[in-house]
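Thread: quick sanity check before group meeting

JM: Hey all, I'm pulling together slides for Thursday and realized we never actually wrote out the predicted structure for the chain we discussed last week. Dropping the sequence here so it's in one place. If anyone has concerns about the input, flag it before I start.
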Amino acid sequence: MSWSGHLLDFKAHCKLEKGLSDNTVISYQRDLSKLHVFAKEGNLSAEAITSTELREFLYQLQKTKLSERSQARCVSSIRRFFIFLIHTGLREDDPTELIQSPKLPTYLPDTLSESEMDDLIKAIDQSTEHGFRNVVLLETLYGCGLRVSELITLKLSSVYWEDQIIKVIGKGNKERWVPIHQRALDLMTLYIDSIRSHQSIASGHEDFLFLNRRGKHLSRVMIFYIIKEASKDAGIQKKVSPHTFRHSFATHLVQRGADLRVVQEMLGHASIMTTEVYTHLNEKDLKKGIQALAKIPVREA
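JM (edit): ok, ran it. Output follows.
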């Protein structure tokens, strides 16, 4: 089978069997397309390419000035592809077994302080329907530490009002349960009763919580735009994105004494190592043991 055929099968495997997100699958395909070009030039098949040839490919990739993080992601994509070939019986060996990813520098995510978060949300004009909706969705984004994809796909049926918890569908369609504070629930209720219930909702979008003017769920681009405008109006000089809200949520939890295992569960990180980036906080802010989330003071608007 040709490289193109293998890549199409791998794409289907990632989407249908593994349930990976569209963005992840696109990243894999983008990385593997580079390997495809290299292999085509050397007349190398996926079934027979060797570790030495893969190292030469990665060396050529390094010379293109690709960032270390992008190189590491490319190695990860290639490794997953050859594991797939082994599982489907197309290879017996793994040519990536002895290939190491570039050592990445410690990455400290941008965060907003609690006062900056307050300033950003207060900068939104709540006198308009969409302004109030934006306040509610940003309170939810921050207060639950959601990814932007999780926010825009949040369903009405996933909010458990009495239990103060929401069901979130994260990466790989994995479910997790995230506590939500009463203030956010009160704002949601007001948004639903005074704004959403009066909208004409597009077919198929009836269960999405946050809607645009056309009665459809919001796009990722719209969330980025809302945050960009609010940051500008609040006079915040930092580069702020939806993920900044997620990082800020985790940072503030740890500052208030939450254990990293608790933060890992709330963020939906598969590995505690991903969450450990938040140990860049001052040690005086790290307390031993798990503080009950219900006892963490709720931020005032």
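AS: nice. The longest strand covers residues 165-169. The chain has a mean pLDDT of 85.
JM: adding both to the slides.
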